[in-house]
Amino acid sequence: MGKLKVFGTIGAIIFGNLGTLKKAEKLAAQGDLDERDRLIGQFADEVCDRIFRAADVQMQIEGAENIPSETCVFIANHQSIFDALVMLAVAKNNRPCGFIMKKEHEKIPMAKRWCTQLGCVFVDRENPRAGVRALKEAEANLERGVSMVVFPEGTRTKNYPHLGPFKNGAFKIAQSGKYPIVPVILYDAGERFEAAEKMTGGTIHMKVLPSVTLTGTDRKEYKRCADELEEVFRKEIEEYHKF
Question: What's this model's pTM, rounded to 2 decimal places?
Fold first, then answer.
């Protein structure tokens, strides 16, 4: 399936469920966040199922037993434009679950509305002060029981399948409330969704590592964790791809 057809399918699902979006927004305005989260979680499951079926893509998760039921911070390497869908499927039993996303997505009105109800936080990577505010918003989500997904590379890898350097933000928000960090290594999502001109189907292989809990409270602690996990991810990806 070509990427344009996949985007068309996503668009059809999103615009075909405006009633669900309006209901979610109404529930949020009324303060019924639990029911809003349940409704949006069901919709997220439907989107993932339909897109993966349409693209003939399956997921093989090693270490699924390491996915906790409590609030956590998922970190994953970023290989393709559809990694958010992959991570929504990974976190199926850990809902509600939002994302830290680049601010450019906020400029798309329909994307902004859906992502806001999902629990996403938009971050301006060019504005350090705005970045601090976004991290505080993510921390508030965690306090409310919303798990967060962060791609610590900050953007998709420019040199698939090689890993980009990890930034520290994901580790900082986990540290603030001692939420477990759940590392998810995507080995070949880029091959399914990004490296080829069209999506030819197949299996996305990934591994969920045991969670990590930060114990210190200073910058050195979360930077150390970021550096150590970056090295773990790098070795795993290099071994998988044999380079």
Answer: 0.92
